[in-house]
């Protein structure tokens, strides 16, 4: 099947997609969430053990913290979505041989609103 890759079952989400969905559920919450709460929010199509495994992976990566609540554990993100995205952008720039060229290519692909926001952040006025 095109686009699914040799080891991916059609309709099955990758580990990265599942981690993203769990992080999105945590970011949307106003308080730490238990695996059961996250499972319910994601529509219940994931087994509890799958959600728990994803949370453990995110914990091992330092992306979530576990708050003890009696015998139940509730999880919360260590960084918000913007902070995590900025970190990923910095990591991507650091990996390449020419970070300035990569940054130039990135900036040329910005939407007008993103370009304006960047100009404002850098203290420049509109063209």
Account of the 3D structure:
InterPro entries: ArsR-like_HTH, BlaI_family, WH-like_DNA-bd_sf, WH_DNA-bd_sf. It is a single chain. The chain is elongated and about 50 Å long. The termini are far apart. The chain is built from six helices and two strands; from the N terminus they run αααββααα. It has helices spanning 15-28, 35-41, 48-60, 81-95, 99-108, 112-121, and strands at residues 64-69, 72-77. The chain folds into two domains: 15-77, Orthogonal Bundle (Arc Repressor Mutant, subunit A), CATH 1.10.10.10; 81-121. The longest helix has 15 residues, at 81-95. Helix 4 (81-95) crosses helix 5 (99-108). Strands 1-2 form a two-stranded antiparallel ribbon. It is mainly α and 127 residues long.
The overall number of domains is 2
Number of helical runs?
A: 6
Helical amount among residues, as a percent range?
A: 40-55%
Uncertain regions spanning at least 5 consecutive residues: 1-10
What coarse outline follows from CA principal-axis ratios? elongated
Give, in order, the helices and strands.
Answer: HHHEEHHH
Which fold does the CATH topology of the largest domain refer to? Arc Repressor Mutant, subunit A
Largest sheet: 2 strands, antiparallel
Identify the CATH homologous superfamily of the largest domain: Winged helix-like DNA-binding domain superfamily/Winged helix DNA-binding domain
The CATH architecture of the largest domain comes to Orthogonal Bundle
Overall strand count:
2
- CATH class of the largest domain, named Mainly Alpha
Average pLDDT rating: 85
**Major sheet: arrangement of strands:** 1-2
- Computed over alpha carbons, the radius of gyration is 19 Å
Q: Helices and strands: which structural class?
A: mainly alpha
CA(first)-CA(last) distance: 48 Å
Strand content: 5-15%
């Amino acid at each position: 099947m095109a686009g699914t890759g040799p080891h991916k079952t059609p309709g099955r989400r990758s580990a990265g997609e599942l981690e993203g969905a769990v992080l999105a559920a945590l970011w949307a919450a106003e308080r730490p969430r238990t695996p059961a709460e996250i499972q319910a929010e994601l529509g219940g199509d994931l087994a509890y053990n799958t959600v728990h495994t994803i949370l453990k992976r995110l914990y091992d990566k330092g992306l979530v913290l576990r708050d003890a609540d009696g015998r139940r554990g509730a999880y919360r993100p260590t960084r918000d979505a913007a902070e995590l995205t900025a970190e990923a952008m910095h990591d991507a720039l650091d990996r390449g041989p020419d970070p300035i060229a990569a940054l130039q290519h990135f900036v040329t692909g910005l939407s007008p609103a993103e370009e304006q926001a960047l100009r404002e952040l850098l203290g420049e006025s509109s063209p």
